[in-house]
From TrEMBL:
Top-level taxon: Bacteria
Family: Belongs to the UPF0102 family.
PANTHER family named among the record's database cross-references: UPF0102 PROTEIN YRAN
Membrane-spanning segments: none
Protein name as annotated: Uncharacterized protein
InterPro entries the UniProt entry points to: Restrct_endonuc-II-like (IPR011335), tRNA_endonuc-like_dom_sf (IPR011856), UPF0102_YraN-like (IPR003509)
Length: 131
């Protein structure tokens, strides 16, 4: 896969698709994607065991996947999961819960996706309950 020719938006969309596949493989069902309102955007809305998960996905291109040897070589996508962003996701999640008349539990999660430049391979790190 030639990811170097993709725009930032296309890289983000690819990361969200990879995150959805990861979530499905781990027992989640995907309810919605890319829901935008005045309060913000919800990247992925997933459900597992009667809990809604509002998953904020952050994707970055990397030369290598992070590990003990190269932890500082590439940008860390978790840096974009700052408090203000998480609060926007939570506010938008509250709107979604009210609109859909969801009566169960819900939470805000993070999902970090690294795409390796040379071959387009991905690594995913799921961060449950980041609020």
């Amino acid at each position: 896969m030639d990811i170097l020719s993709k725009t930032t938006k296309e890289i983000g969309n690819l990361g969200e698709s990879i995150a959805c596949e990861y979530l499905k493989r781990h027992g989640f069902s995907i309810r919605d994607r890319n829901i935008a309102r005045k309060t913000g955007e919800l990247d992925v809305i997933a459900e597992k065991e009667d809990t809604l998960h509002f998953v904020e996905v952050k994707t970055v291109l990397a030369d290598e996947f992070p590990n003990e040897k190269n932890t500082n070589d590439d940008y860390d996508p978790s840096l974009n999961l700052h408090e203000a962003k998480i609060q926007k996701v939570a506010m938008t999640g509250e709107w979604y819960v009210l609109e859909k008349r969801w009566e169960g539990e819900w939470q805000v999660d993070g999902c970090l996706v690294w795409l390796r430049r040379r071959d387009g391979m991905a690594r995913v790190s799921y961060l449950p309950q980041i609020v």
